[in-house]
Amino acid sequence: SQPIQWTGGQFEFPCASTKSLFKSSGKFIPKNVIATRAQLIGDTIYLALPRYRKGVPATLVKTNVKPGTCSTTFKPYPCWDLQEEGNCKALQSVVDLVVDQNEVLWVLDTGIVNTLETPVRKCPPKVVAMSVKTGKVLKTVSLEGLTSSSSRLQYLVVDYAPDGGCFVYVSDAANRAIIVYNLQADRGFRVVLPKAVTAGCRSRDVLYIALIRRDCGSTELYFTYLSTSKLFSLKSEYLRSGVADGRILDLGKKPSRMVIIGTDNGSAIFFRNEGDAEVYRWDTNSTFAEANFKPVYRSQTCQLVTHAVPDYKRNTMRVLQSNFPDYMQNRVGCGAIQQLGLMQGCW
């Protein structure tokens, strides 16, 4: 099965004149578009296109992944109106997205655009929930009161408590915190992580979070900063009640700088090492040791994976990969080469 590949980003504009208007006004610069996160439902893939640079007309899109798809055109999701920069009811810059067990699509919008050029805060950060079936916005959660101007919101997790209550967790790397939002109570709070979690941090670091589901139904959040040497975990029940003190487990030393790229929505975490194309799978039921890291994927084109996501229709894992280090350094010519690949084997 060949990966689906595209360069930069092409959009389904309402008409040709809209496209030329977007291009002439600098609202559409194809080489500035890059997909970094993905979610699959059936033959549809939802993609986050962060507004790292000017010229990204839509920050949340969907496209088709039917076998035999050779060209990729993005359709703004759920519509063009919700992509407008500067309109705080719309999406400003989507950096992560999650589809939950009820086919609700949750997106994390930082509210900050042009982050690789001159960052501009257009709107407060928020999490938006949409029905995949209808495209309707079900809920908008403002994170304004739970963040500060220095916040760097990076990853999003959605969790359901045993009683059915829905919770959202967001990593705030700059404030050493995980934001917890209880949807039923319609309130949130910050769980500030102990200083040990940041030992060895660089100033602008990445805080990865991954939710693991145990066979018994309980969940656990695994987290680590890219530059630090250790991996930690916390049972979700403690996170949901806001009592993390003394409950965080130190799982030991990382053999290298791990980039956590996703889970199988079960007990496995997928990761790669910084700058390396090889993807590993670690079953969290086994000890955190190199002997238990199984190599499961390597891009044929040395692309780096930014997200590993379950493809339930095909009973496999998909990987979204690109030459994003070149994109970050503005060395991409026509645009970043992005691929949606397939992990071989059953997970």
From TrEMBL:
It comes from the Eukaryota. GO terms for cellular component: extracellular region. Keywords: Secreted, Signal. Its main location: secreted. The keyword Signal applies. Gene3D superfamilies: TolB, C-terminal domain (2.120.10.30). SUPFAM superfamilies: NHL repeat (SSF101898). It is found in: Secreted. Belongs to the major royal jelly protein family. This is Protein yellow-like. It comes from Drosophila rhopaloa (Fruit fly).
